[in-house]
Design goal:
The protein is of the alpha/beta class. Helices cover 37% and strands 19% of the residues. The strands form seven sheets. It has an eight-stranded antiparallel sheet, with helices on both faces. It has a seven-stranded mixed sheet with strand order 1-2-5-4-3-6-7, sandwiched between helices. Strands 25-26-27-28-29-30 form a six-stranded parallel sheet. β3, α5 and β4 form a beta-alpha-beta unit.
């Protein structure tokens, strides 16, 4: 009886504290019997808090031996880390924190209330209440407030979102919370590409000709083009991830391209200033991973080749960079370390360079955060970058972490990473979203998956399309390619489009296999887009056969036998619809005299009254609620005649509404209206779960009220209001909604004990009498006893 109501988390309750408090006093406390909240969930300070059903790290650590505790903590003073991010990087941070013996804390937006990353942490909190999906994660004051209220020692921003926000880092420092990243001052220097370029110039790094300062003046761009020639690169001063970037090849296009890029940067980063430089044609994009402790110690963890890009977004990353001149490799490492020391860098970062066809390198920018592609560096160095970040934020130095010199970092083998996204390459990489129906990832030696995808996961249209990261490692570049190609072939993802077929083509291209790809690789290799759609033939075949069996062949030119089975011929009704509509009935009493007169008529009736559930419970239990509106419509005349004089037809509720809408593609409202026309003489009844209405989560009060009113207008007469836990506030709310809609209120108590057993202390006769009295006093018309588990004994009924 309890499982269906308790299986899904009532996340929307987290944004309804005001209205719910009016009915219940206490919003929801630990162990509360509020429908939809588990015993491990409660509110704190107006937020919904999710406590993991698994033992918390703190509880487990009490049982750990002292030796294991030392291994986990590594001497860190930090006890609790928050990931100020979502998706796979949040899960990556939680895993690192857990391995360090720390408690982990997740945040989520209202749009992410069902996202699986929140369940990977010990605790989960709503932030940015009432804000847009992305804006919620940018609300750093809300995030810091949650951190302070819940004893968070450190906040890891991940990548994207707030990871390069100088103000966020400064506020963390002001509140005494360790920011897992560079100092606020450094973020300000490195985040502004013009300032960063000046720092690089000051310590002797080679630069591409460009403007000294960011500008939002289009005339400056036009004058620069005249002086230095074409092509040009326009880059957002505060940007990243390819947004706000344009390559301009013609002088006549400079003004228009600048305006568009500046507008895009303004929207994405709140700053429309642009950095202008000469565009180096077809370079390689090489970046060096650095790690610094802020007290003068800096090491590099080798370089990565990120040249496989589409519209400045990285697609495939490699470590180390194949076919790179060793002298050039050394210069890149030295320049990256030199710049990090110059600015007294702290924590992880990436120094990025362009390399032209003459093996000349030019400084690009610094990404002062962990990168999406950090996994390939971890695989070839054996260094856990995220753990190292956390430990440095907690005060550890590189020598204390085992890095006494650069010689302590050894590069072994090759690693490749693919970003598997929910984009359709056949449609210009347009993002796709929906529900993951099949998810079978690859495995084996040297195969790593970073993500938080499950069967049933919903891909939101509000966030980045990155689904999962696939990293493959081997002793050679060729071996890593072999593993990657096999792993991509092994991947099975259904329900949304992905770029897997495109990636398979990348790993077959001769240019890629040569190890010498440039940033023009995708644009200059059109055969990458000659893809065979990766279709799950078995699933499609079963769907087709099911359609043929039920509905018959419909495709053009189809021949063959009709659907399996024969259409039943419903019996002819003894009374016609007009005749039934005119005669006296319970339905007519409700329409003409109202709910109270109906209740009196039921009490005055001599004999048993029947409530028929064929149109709801019967086909829900026997046929998974798959009976269609057209099938019910065909038998409606016979039903109206055969059950004339019945108490009601229960024909609407949670599962019928949900299945009609999502699986049968039948409009549940249209079903109600059509059947109402056919059955004018018998009251229609539905099941209403209070604040859950016919769904599986709590909705806003006005939504439930409007839904109830519309249901009444469309043909529902009797509303069976119930709560699986007999939560009175939820029952009263449902009663109020039905009363306001002028419907018949059938208040329901769920029977879950044995009142005839004197040893039972919780669900006693007094308990049910008191519950009934409360419902009667609140204005119910009918009382129902719901005995879903078959516990009601004859002796108990006699009591």
């Amino acid at each position: 009886m309890m499982s269906s109501s308790m299986s899904s988390l009532s996340s929307r309750a987290s944004v309804r504290g005001g209205s719910r408090a009016k009915r219940g006093g206490v919003v929801a406390k630990k162990g509360s019997k509020r429908s939809g909240l588990r015993s491990g969930d409660w509110r704190r300070g107006g937020r919904l808090v999710i406590k993991s059903e698994v033992e918390s790290h703190e509880e487990r650590n009490r049982k750990n031996s002292d030796a294991l505790g030392e291994i986990l903590r590594q001497g860190s003073t930090l006890k609790k880390v928050m990931a100020a991010n979502r998706g796979e990087i949040a899960v990556r941070i939680f895993r690192a924190g857990t391995e360090l013996g720390m408690r982990t804390t997740a945040i989520f937006s209202e749009a992410d209330r069902l996202s699986s990353h929140r369940y990977k942490a010990d605790e989960s909190y709503l932030v940015g209440e009432g804000k847009e999906p992305v804006a919620a994660y940018l609300d750093y004051e809300s995030i810091i407030e949650v951190a302070k209220e819940n004893g968070v020692d450190a906040i890891h921003p991940g990548y994207g979102l707030l990871s390069e926000n100088e103000n966020f880092a400064r506020r963390c420092e002001e509140e005494g919370i360790a920011f897992v990243g560079p100092r606020a001052e450094t973020l300000g220097q490195m985040g502004d590409k013009v300032v960063c370029k000046a720092q690089a110039k000051a310590c002797g790094l080679p630069l591409v000709p460009g403007t000294e300062y960011a500008t939002d003046d289009v005339e400056t761009a036009v004058e620069f083009a005249k002086e230095f020639g074409m092509p040009l690169m326009l880059k957002a001063a505060m940007g990243g991830g390819g947004r706000g970037m344009r390559v301009v090849r013609e002088q006549s296009e400079v003004a228009q391209a600048f305006a568009r890029a500046s507008s895009e940067a303004k929207t994405a980063f709140g700053d429309g200033r642009m950095f202008i430089e000469r565009y180096v044609e077809a370079p390689r994009h090489i970046e060096v991973q650095i790690m610094a402790d802020g007290v003068g110690n800096v090491i590099h963890l080798g370089e990565r080749d990120c040249s496989v890009q589409r519209r400045h977004q990285k697609v495939v990353e490699m470590a180390p960079a194949p076919c790179l001149d060793e002298d050039l490799r050394k210069r890149l490492h030295e320049d990256a370390v030199k710049l990090a020391k110059h600015v007294n860098y702290r924590n992880a970062g990436t120094v990025e360079f362009m390399v032209d066809d003459q093996n000349r390198h030019y400084f690009l920018e610094v990404n002062p955060r962990v990168q999406v592609e950090h996994t390939v560096t971890e695989e070839v160095t054996g260094v856990d970058i995220v753990q190292t970040q956390v430990l440095i934020a907690g005060g550890k130095t590189l020598p204390e972490l085992g890095f006494k010199s650069q010689d302590d970092v050894q590069i072994r083998g090759f690693a490749l990473q693919c970003r598997i996204t929910t984009e359709d390459p056949m449609m210009g990489f347009s993002p796709d979203f929906g529900r993951i129906e099949v998810y079978r990832p690859p495995g084996g030696l040297g195969v790593r998956i970073d993500g938080e995808v499950l069967v049933g996961s919903r891909i939101s249209p509000f966030y980045d399309s990155l689904l999962v990261k696939l990293t493959c490692t081997s002793q050679s570049f060729e071996g890593a390619v072999q593993k990657m190609y096999r792993s991509l072939a092994e991947f099975r993802i259904r329900g949304v489009k992905t770029n897997v077929p495109f990636l398979q083509n990348v790993f077959q291209a001769e240019a890629f296999l040569s190890g010498k790809v440039t940033t023009n690789f995708i644009d200059e290799t059109p055969e990458l887009f000659d893809m065979i759609s990766n279709v799950d033939d078995t699933q499609k075949l079963l769907t087709y056969l099911g359609e043929i069996a039920v509905n018959g062949a419909k495709h053009p030119g189809a021949v063959g036998p009709p659907p399996i089975g024969t259409e039943p011929n419903p019996p002819k009704p003894s009374k016609k619809t007009p005749e039934l509509a005119e005669q006296q009935s319970f339905k007519k009493i409700i329409d003409e005299q109202g709910p109270q007169a109906f209740a009196k008529a039921v009490r005055d009736h001599k004999g048993l009254l029947l409530m028929d559930t064929t149109w709801r419970d019967a086909h829900q239990s026997l046929l998974a609620t798959r009976v269609r509106t057209r099938d019910l419509y065909q038998c409606a005349d016979a039903t109206a005649s055969a059950l004339d004089g019945a108490y009601s037809l229960e024909m609407w509720g949670g599962a019928t509404f949900d299945v009609s809408l999502r699986f049968l593609r039948d409009c549940p409202w249209r079903r109600l209206e059509l059947l109402r026309e056919k059955v004018p003489n018998i009251p229609f009844q539905m099941l209403l779960r209070g604040a859950n209405a016919v769904g599986y989560t709590s909705y806003a009060d006005n939504v439930v009220q409007e839904f109830t009113t519309e249901a009444r207008k469309s043909g529902i007469d009797i509303f069976r209001v119930f709560d699986s836990l007999n939560y009175v506030d939820n029952l009263k709310f449902g009663i109020d909604c039905v009363r306001n809609a002028d419907g018949v209120v059938e208040g329901t108590i769920c029977y879950s004990g044995d009142v005839s057993d004197p040893s039972r202390k919780k669900y006693t006769l007094d308990y049910y009498l008191d519950l009934t009295e409360q419902l009667v006093n609140h204005g119910i018309d009918i009382l129902a006893i719901k005995d879903m588990a078959g516990l009601f004994k004859p002796r108990a009924g006699a009591m």
